[in-house]
Design a protein that fits this description.
120 residues, alpha+beta, 60s Ribosomal Protein L30, Chain: A, 4-stranded mixed β-sheet
Length: 120
């Protein structure tokens, strides 16, 4: 078994750092605007994201070439609480953000990436 904080804590800690840096785009409307703008994005969905939100933003993210990752084990209440926000279902950050690759890798731990992308 791996030492150190568990996967969910590493993800939440990293997201907290990104929020303080101003690199995180929280919420459905903001994420949608970000996806429609230029640039590549990493889009993260809380485990309990509403199906309609998941389908709409997931489809937009896929069309725009964004990387999509579910936050398994992290629900919208916990996500919002840890980021100092109301419950939040979806987040985005620029794919070229130095922490994006690490965060994406943590989301992939124990999961099949292809299956994740197909499920959104």
């Amino acid at each position: 078994m791996e030492g150190g904080p568990k996967r969910e804590e590493r993800i939440l800690g990293c997201l907290g750092i990104l929020r303080r840096m101003g690199a995180l785009v929280p919420g459905q409307d903001r994420v949608e605007r970000a996806l429609r703008s230029s640039g590549k994005w990493l889009v993260l969905f809380a485990e309990d994201t509403n199906g309609a939100v998941l389908r709409r933003l997931g489809a937009l993210a896929a069309r725009q070439g964004a990387t999509i990752r579910p936050l398994k084990g992290i629900d919208r209440r916990l996500l919002g609480e840890r980021l100092g926000l109301r419950p939040v279902q979806v987040l985005a950050l620029p794919a070229d953000e130095p922490l994006a690759e690490r965060l994406s890798g943590w989301c992939d731990e124990g999961s099949d990436v292809h299956e994740q992308n197909q499920g959104v």
